[in-house]
Amino acid sequence: MSGLSIRDVSIRYGKRVVIRDLTLPDLPAGQVTVLAGPNAAGKSTLLRAVAQLGPHAGRIMLDDADLARLPGPQRARLVGFMPQSLPSGSSLIVLESIIAALRAAGETPAAQADAQAMAVLDRLGIGALALNPLDQLSGGQRQLVSLAQAIVRNPRLLLLDEPTSALDLARQVRLLAELRRLAAEGRVVVAVLHDLALAAQWADRIVVLHQGGIHSDGPPEKVLTPAMLAEVYGVEARVERCSRGNLTILIDRELAPVP
Length: 259
Ligand SMILES: Nc1ncnc2c1ncn2[C@@H]1O[C@H](COP(=O)(O)OP(=O)(O)OP(=O)(O)O)[C@@H](O)[C@H]1O
Description:
Number of domains: 2
Bound molecules: adenosine-5'-triphosphate
Radius of gyration: 19 Å
């Protein structure tokens, strides 16, 4: 098979099962998939398991390779992971942090590493930040640097946890357009997003997690329905097409919580 395959995955914290026997139809290269669902549905937990950053049962395969069995540097070459936030307390400047991310997959000659890191910063429009200390960046700048760290190794699989949460409107669109380009270059792209209107516009496919499993899965126009929004998010909402034909979601009210 080609792409990402997730089969019979279960994840627990202690005795508490967060994801139960989850199997997804394969995610092919070239597509952007959005993982959605309410707070605490297990989106980050699943993304981290795919990146092999947390224990899980079941099989997670990329192009016939079992990700759990790959040696660390080989996995680092194949998988880019952008966390919800970069840890603070780093003494590195931006360029050094990108080079460190590049070297996680093996040694690269210094001149080549510099050039590759600078090219990624320029691609994301943040080349001017290269010499700034990581710890002195704004939240949105940190998020773009985090994306640069995730893509500098040119990974086949790109996993992003709420990549637009700190970005202004123009940068949200820039990042999502960049994800589409990264997918079109032959990558599997999976992003957790809370903003379903953005997901409707930019995703090929939306997977909605709810109560430990998949509530719905498919193209945005199939998944984004008033019934799903009521069942999963507990809101009364309308899904309508705007004048350009894009789906928009209008939330009218919160429904009474189910006892
Ligand atoms: N390290 C941990 N130890 C114990 N429980 C955890 C841990 N990390 C997450 N959880 C629990 O697992 C559940 C799923 O958390 P997760 O962060 O995956 O949800 P999420 O869907 O990403 O939520 P959000 O939209 O709020 O970011 C939550 O109930 C959370 O409290």
